[in-house]
Amino acid sequence: MSNDHNILDNINILNDPKIDMITKNSIAISLSETADKRVLYCLHDLINNPLYKNMRGTFVYCLRSFPSEDSFSLAIELVLTGNFEVAHEAFEILDNVKEKIDQEVVRASYDKIATFYENNREYEEWRKFLIEDLMSMFD
Question: Is pTM, for the whole model, over 0.85?
Fold first, then answer.
């Protein structure tokens, strides 16, 4: 029971915008080791929060402690839009998918990647290679 209470307390700390990023990163790493789904959902929320847009690399890294399938769609988005660190961490999540993903999700994800690739010719060279590698995973 105290462990569950400790997890909830730490999730509350992660969600507190007044807490500094060094503390948040440390707590996120510790919590990710629990493999608790509530932590996964909290990490997803933090990653999607515009407040942390340029500070979410550790949060994305922590997703690697959970089944990749649970963050599949988010990882696709992060490869396309994240900075260098975030995009590469998201790619690692996608590269480690072990379970079958719903066909509709896969199809929609591939279409999203292909559309992004075709419509965004001004992205960074490293992103181009990352997206090409990602597209090859769908073959």
Answer: yes
